[in-house]
Design goal:
This protein is an alpha+beta fold and 111 residues long. It has one domain: Trna Endonuclease, Chain: A, domain 1 (3-Layer(aba) Sandwich), CATH 3.40.1350. Helices cover 31% and strands 41% of the residues. It is built from two helices and five strands, in the order αβββαββ. The chain has helices spanning 2-18, 68-84, and strands at residues 22-30, 34-42, 45-55, 90-99, 103-109. It has a five-stranded mixed sheet, with helices on both faces. Strand 2 (34-42) and strand 3 form a beta hairpin.
Amino acid sequence: MKNIGKLGENIAKKFLAKKGYKVIETNYWLKRFGEIDIIAKKDNTYYFFEVKASKFNSVIDPSVHYTKSKRKKLEKLILYYTNLNKIDNYVRGLITIEIGKKIRIKKYENV
């Protein structure tokens, strides 16, 4: 499953680049809180994306893995990062990717 996750992150980075985002960091990790998959910037706003990927034929939508616990940890990590780097304007987001013969990508903001 880790290979699907890494593939999903690579697809998400390309997707964001095509949409005009500049990827600042990937896999930003802080021991107490975990990891931010992608930190990107567009139009003076920073975006902190969690990426969830699954095989297309999976019966479970990848977004179900974005749990309340994960959101809380992510928010703490984002606050740490934004305070450290003096960032005021940011958005927390989720990118879900279903990988099969075709790739389906959904981007959510403020989740």
